[in-house]
Specification:
- The complex is a heterodimer of chains A (about 230) and B (about 210).
- Chain A is an alpha/beta fold.
- Chain A is built from 6 helices and 11 strands.
- By secondary structure, chain B is an alpha/beta fold.
- In chain B, helix 3 runs parallel beside helix 4.
- The chains are: A alpha/beta (about 230), B alpha/beta (about 210).
Chain lengths: ~230, ~210
Amino acid sequence: MKKVYPSASAALEGLLFDGMTIAAGGFGLCGIPELLIAAIREAGTKDLTIASNNAGVDGFGLGVLLATRQVKKMISSYVGENAEFMRQYLSGELELEFNPQGTLAERLRAGGAGIPGFYTKTGVGTVIAEGKDVKVFNGQEYILETGIVTDISIVKAWKADPSGNLVFRKTARNFNPPAATAGRVCIAEVEEIVPLGALDPDHIHLPGIYVHRLIQGTHEKRIEQRTVRKREA
Amino acid sequence: MAWDRNQMAARAAQELQDGWYVNLGIGIPTLVSNYIPEGISVTLQSENGMLGMGPFPYEGEEDPDLINAGKQTITELPQTAYFDSAQSFAMIRGGKIAMAILGAMEVAENGDLANWMIPGKLVKGMGGAMDLVAGVGRVVVVMDHTSKHGESKVLKSCTLPLTGKGVVDRIITNLGVLDVVPGGLKIVEVAEGVTEAELRAATEATLVG
């Protein structure tokens, strides 16, 4: 079975439908599947529920799907960088489920690992705990969180081989591995597909079993907050 | 004269102990890394997936694949390790991080912390703050003692949605240092140029000891 597709649109062929759920990798604009997001925008798929730590910025990342009103609901931990998001949310056009960042990461990991729920201390005594089962372990309260399984996941990696083995680069790894495992079908976009055997098997970050379709492309990789220090003279 | 942002960060840096793994929040806590005392080696965790966070890059050396949790470009160090978000929060939730230094909107005398939303006004999200306060060994809050309007942010009980219940150990403000103890807060230190009476007047919370 061939995993490598010629384009993002080709890789999404037959997978998209209105009302579907998507897990997306990335933190801020770092390590986001920008080519697949653009292809979903092209396809016009509506009423999406997207589990992603952030919602992009106006005009880039998942922000482009918000601009076209393709998103019904976001499951995120932080959405502070997106004015259009705020507008749609405050006017009731967009649903938002806040998850603590670690809870979201673990929900994706658990979903992908066949674990339907887990107990965590995170959020005990806050609005996050409302309506959730509470259990005491060793005298401490924990709340029940559920694993997330989505129709597809879209992720970005640095390198892949044709079997779908992925290698990420620096902090662009972030949510990509847990998001990849949560999808029933995972589509990965990478900067470079190298020949079989070119990746050291000991250095694979995500084994190809989690990756069903693969594309190579050119990424803009926009920087959200450019911070620098002065060279000492 | 109360402490300024940098003096608060310098005071917070004195909380660090040799060998600790530490997470610094956004804002004043980020400045703490400029004041790590000599002879003390700490490893900074960035919850987006990095241990061993280095300083900002030189101009022209910014890497879009290398950012901190505030989405700022940073650099790596010889001891740096990268990992995914699930692993990152496994070490946070699992109690492997000795201390988190975080900003706050409100703190209460029972250690309750609010720093993630103002209903109807500011809806940004909690990011990793709820996981951090639930999981790390020690939580130190760094913030201004009062709001822009002069109202105390060190309260009997928080009015904003909580980030964590009973999670704060120590509060460092522009007016001084307070510890959360049974029955209320205890003054540990008064900032240079501030009187204890001024610190007490700016504090709504019960002060004990």
